[in-house]
Each structure stands twice: as C-alpha cells, then as structure tokens.
Amino acid sequence: MVTEATVTRVLVAGSSGYIGTEVVSQLEAAGFEVLSLVRREPRTDTEFYWDPRSGTIDDRSITLADAVINLAGASTGKIPWTPSYKSEILRSRVSGTRTIAEAIRRSNTPPAVFLNGSAVGYFGSRPGEVLDDESVKGTGFLSDVVDAWEMAARLTPPTTRLVMFRTGIVVGEGGAFTPLNLLTHYGLGSRLGSGEQYWPWISLHDEAAAIIHLLRSDFAGAVSLVGPTPATAETITKTLARSMHKPHWLAVPSFAFRMLGDAGKDLILVDENVQPRTLLETGFAFSHTTIEQAIDEFVD
Predict the structure, then answer these.
(1) CATH code 3.40.50.300 for 9-173+202-228+273-287
(2) Which of 24, 57, 130, 151 has a CA positioned 20 to 30 A from the CA of residue 190?
(3) 52 in helix, strand or coil?
(4) What is the DSSP pairing of strand 169-171 with strand 130-131?
C-alpha cells in the first residue's frame, strides 16, 4: 500500500483546472508536496514545462515524483462539438496521457503510481442496465474516446501501478455543472429530454478525496468515481432549482438535443446508471451520498 511515508511528492497535470484545484488543495492539506506540469514558462521550482500536443515533457518532473495524477484534457462541456473540436477532445486526452506514460517508461526512477483521468462515458448510453466496472465498453463518440484514452494509459510500465478513474458529472460551482448552474440561476431550470435518464454524478469534494484515496491504496485498474445513490436528470435539475429557490417549469424535448449531434446524445440524453462498487470495495467513504447533499453543499 502507498502511504505518505513512501509518497511525498505528487506531480499533477491539469492542476489549475476545476478538479485539479480541489485535488491540489486536498493533497496539500494531507501533507503531500505538489509539483505541477504547466504549458507556459515555469515560474517556481515546483513547476515543470510540458507540451502534450508535441509530446514534450521535462523528464525531471517524472524523476522527482513519487506519484503522477493526470487531469488534463479539453473540456467536453464546450458546445458545439464541431469535427475539429471532437478531434481536440480525443487528441488532448490521448497525447497527454501517452506523453506521461512514455516519460514514465524511460525513467530510471519511475513513480510508484500513475493515476490517469478517464470517464464513465466508457459505458455509453445503456437504458435499463445497472453498470459497474465489470461492464463492457458501450458505443458512441465518448465511449470510443475513453477507450483510446485508457489504451494510452496502459503504455505505463508494470513497475508503476496504474489507476484509471472514470469520472461522472462533478457537482460543484464549475466544470460541466456550470451550464446547469447558470440556466437555473436565471430561472430557466428545465426537464431535459424525458428526464428519466440516469446521470452518474459525484461531488467535487468526493472526486478529489477519491483520487487521493486511490493514491494511498493498492488498487490498480479502472474504477468509476460516481456517487452511491443514482439520480435521474430530472432529479438533478429539480434539486438544483430547489436549492437555488428558482422555478423548474420548462421542458426541453429530446429532439432538440439530438440536433446537437454527439454532444446532445453523449452529454444530455445519455442514460448511465453506474454504481461505484469497486470504489466502495477499496474502503472509500463518501462525504456526500445523495445528489441533494452534493448540491446543497455548494449552493449553500
């Protein structure tokens, strides 16, 4: 098992992002030293340059790190998904992951663990199914992206424990939740499609806490980071409206989202009832077990 005694320095890619900021905060609170990969000129001795597009990385960052956490990748919340942006969604994940995995391979002192971001989009839309980490790959654009993303992560040498954490919708004040927050704030909370589709969710706090929990564990493989109580899209949008004391009276039909192509199908109409069985088996304890708790935490 990895502990603070064996891991003191953690290298984070995507440290300034929505999830990355919370991960860094919790790592530092737990006593870890955080190093960062940045795409600009480094400003401190804890920052190291990398350019995942070209496969460039300062190898000193890998040499110094006891563990690496990769959260980098183009936002899927930027709509529309034009053909060029779909290419960017795929490229940013695969090239960044491959750059880190190959740097670990050539290191004489590889880190003990590599935790690489992934997504529950791996499962695709599966109405009526209960999914966990034993479930097979689904179909769709995001499912194919995640498959390629995880294949790149598997370039990591066997001497480094590999964890691929498949994240659901991260509930908080930023990230993919931003459009819902804004619409609800302006009184435009709506039922999206049928509203009966399951959206796998996790609070921002638990997302970061679960990543650090997996860092300290001896688990290797793919694991879903989702809350333990499933919630439908309508439950989520209604709960958000209630917490903000805003109306929830509109309804946007499914065909409107189908006009958005893969973005509408994979982000809004997707139906994924994903259970965190593996995460729970590793001993993780959620701070927010229901969507109501998760939303009330950041709205209040």
Answers:
(1) no
(2) 130
(3) coil
(4) unpaired
Which sequence spans correspond to the domains of the chain? 9-173+202-228+273-287
From residue 222, alpha-carbon distances to 99, 154, 229 in Å are 20, 11, 20
The candidate with the shortest Cα–Cα distance to 227, out of 249, 201, 262, 246, is: 201
What's the pTM? 0.96
Q: What is the pLDDT along the chain (300 residues), one digit of tens a residue?
A: 554 457 899 999 999 999 999 999 999 999 999 999 999 999 999 999 999 999 999 999 999 999 999 999 999 989 999 999 999 999 999 999 999 999 999 999 999 999 999 999 999 999 999 999 999 999 999 999 999 999 999 999 999 999 999 999 999 998 888 999 999 999 999 999 999 999 999 999 999 999 999 999 999 999 999 999 999 999 999 999 999 999 999 999 999 999 999 999 999 999 999 999 999 999 999 999 999 999 999 997
Among 11, 54, 5, 71, smallest CA distance to 36 is for 11
